[in-house]
C-alpha cells in the first residue's frame, strides 16, 4: 500500500498538523484493537524498534513498537513546534523531522520564500529525502500551511517547488488555510496572492480552507450542542471537532483547536478510502485523475457531513439522504463559495461507514433529478469511494 508524508509549515500548518496526527492516532486506535502494525497504519506511520539504536530500525510487520509519523515539521519560530514536542504527541516525532528558527518570517511572504528558502534549502531536501527513504511506495506529500503568514505562505510554497524538482513523480496535495476578512495580519492578502501564484504552478491539488467557514461551522456546532432543544441532543463522540475535549472549551478560549480539527478530519476522510477496506476503494491517484482534467484547474471545494450525529436518530436512510443533500450545501463547505451560483465540473463523494451501494445510487439519482450536478461545460464526472470505517461523508468538487 502507498504511503504519504505530511509537511507542516508555519504556525498554522503545525497547529493543524497537531490536530491531524492526534485524530489519526485516535482513528487507528479505535479500529486497530489488537495493536498490529497493518497496511492502514503504514500509510502515515512508521513502526520503529527504538531498542536497537537511538535512531530506531523499521519493523515492517507485526506488533506496534513505537510509531513515528511520516512528517516534517517546519516553522521559522520555535514556539508551536516546541509545544508539540512537549505535548502528548511528542513520541511520534524526533529531532530528524524538525526544522526551526527563532525569528519567524514577520508575516512577509518574501522573507519565507527568498530568505529562509535559500538558507534552509539543503536541510529541507536532506530531511525530505530521509523521510522518503523510509517509504517503500511514496505516493503523496501533503503540505499544510496558511496563506496569511510569512513562513506558511513563503517557505511553504518554496517547499512545493523543491518537491516538484526532487520528487516529480510524487503527488503534491496542499491544504491552504486562507485568511478571513477580519484577519489581524495586515499583509495577509499580499502573502495570499503571492503564494497562490506558486500553488497554481506547482501543486497537483489544492484544498482551500477559509478560516471564516471553519469559524461558522464551529459556531453552528456549539449552538447545536448547547441549544438543549428536545430532539437535538448530540452524541458527544460524534462531533467532527472533538479531540482532547476540544468542544468543551469555550470557542473564544482556543478557537483554532476546534477549527483545526475540522481540517484534520478532512484529510483523514480524504485518505480513508486508500487506507481502509471498502467496496469502492479510491486512492489519491483517482482523485487527481478524475477531478483535475487540466493541470491548473486543481482547486477543490470540500465539504464535510455529518458534523455531528443526533443521539436519538434511528432512521438511517433518512439521515443518509440528508447527509447527501448537506454535502452539496454551502453550510457544510470549508470555503465560502455558493455552489448554486456555479457549476460542478467534477465531483467526488467519499463515503465512510456501512453504506449500501444501492443507497448511494438512489441518492445520486435523487440529486441528479434535482439538477444538482447540472453542467453546461462538457462531460461531468462523478467519482465514488467508500470505506467501511466510520460514517463520515466528504465531498470534493470543482465548481
Ligand atoms: N485555521 C487556523 N488558522 C491559523 C492558525 N494559526 C494561524 N492561523 C491563520 O494563519 C495566518 C497567520 O499565519 P501563521 O501560520 O501564524 O504564520 P506563519 O506561517 O507562522 O508565518 P510567520 O509567523 O510570519 O513566520 C492568519 O490568517 C491566521 O488567522 C491555526 O491554528 N488554525
Ligand atoms: Mg509564525
Number of DSSP E strands: 15
Poorly predicted regions are: 245-252
Radius of gyration (CA) equals 20 Å
Please describe the biggest sheet, giving its number of strands, its sense, and whether it closes into a barrel: 6 strands, parallel
Count of the domains: 2
- In CATH, the topology of the largest domain is named Rossmann fold
Structural class per helix/strand content?
A: alpha/beta
DSSP helix fraction: 40-55%
Number of helices: 11
Give, in order, the helices and strands: EHEHEEEEEHEHEHEHEHHHEHEHEE
Strand content: 15-25%
Overall pLDDT metric: 83
Q: What do we call the CATH homologous superfamily of the largest domain?
A: Tubulin/FtsZ, GTPase domain
Spatial strand order of the main sheet: 8-7-1-9-10-11
CATH class of the largest domain: Alpha Beta
